[in-house]
Amino acid sequence: METDFYYKTQKFDGVNIIFGNTLEKEYKEFNIEEKREPDNLKYSQYLNPEDLLVLSIPLSKFIEEVKPQIIIGCDTGGRLFSLATYYTWKEMNNNKPFLTIDHKIHFMYLKLEYYSYLEERFNDIILNLIKISKNSDLDRHSLRILFIDDWIVSGLTLKIAKNLAKKYTDNIYFGVIYKKLENPNISSNTIIVNWKKSPSKIGVQYSNQNIIAIKDKEVKLIRESMRSIAKELVI
After folding, report:
1. Which of 83, 129, 145, 208 could form a disulfide with 101 if both were Cys (CB 3.0 to 4.6 A apart)?
2. What's the pLDDT tens digit per position in 4-21?
3. Segment holding 99, helix H or strand E
4. Is the distance from CB of 205 to CB of 199 less than 8 angstroms?
5. pLDDT digits (tens, 9 = 90+) for 104-113
6. Phi/psi of residue 125, each to 5°?
7. Burial level of 17, CB count in 10 A (0-12/13-18/19+)?
8. Could you give the dihedral angle defined by the CA atoms of residues 215, 220, 226 and 230, in that order, rounded to the nearest 10 degrees?
9. How far, in Å, CA of 27 to CA of 58, rounded?
10. Phi-psi region of 122 (alpha: psi -120 to 50; beta: other; left: phi over 0)
């Protein structure tokens, strides 16, 4: 199935946006449930966390081709999509170590009011990863940083990401399920996600800049289900 889905790119404000064709053309292929909303009688695409595995295939292909050394998941909306991308990439590559410098995805809550804190934390992440890379040629021309979020609406999170990363590199990427810029194909008000503002599904809760890990049974079950679906999708 994974060969049926491809990514697209768009340059916006100096950032390369990566998004799949799945929601735009192929979403009926994997049973996103259509629900009629009683208040406006319009159909909506209703996404479960498990649907993100299919949506992550284009981004996983981009990661394999471009090989970003550092990946930042944008909490809280982008956490499950980041994890889905990680699981899918691992299955597509026979469970090899993830190709970032430290084989991980880092997470940051990109809110403008926390910018000073974010800048300090981002600098620590980048400098530590550059140090452990043992690559003296890793400079702003060769360093590739990818941010992952669920979607772009106003572009504010994208701008925060760009401001954080532009100190270190000219190669800034922003991977999303879809983007609402210029002429969007799908309006954001037609997409419903059942994990929005649900720490028991996302797995974390924020109190200002502080991260509180949620270890509910539901969190574990969702991640186990996502890993299982990744194995089934990637053949």
Report:
1. 129
2. 678 989 999 999 999 987
3. none
4. yes
5. 999 999 999 9
6. -60, -50
7. buried
8. 110
9. 13
10. alpha
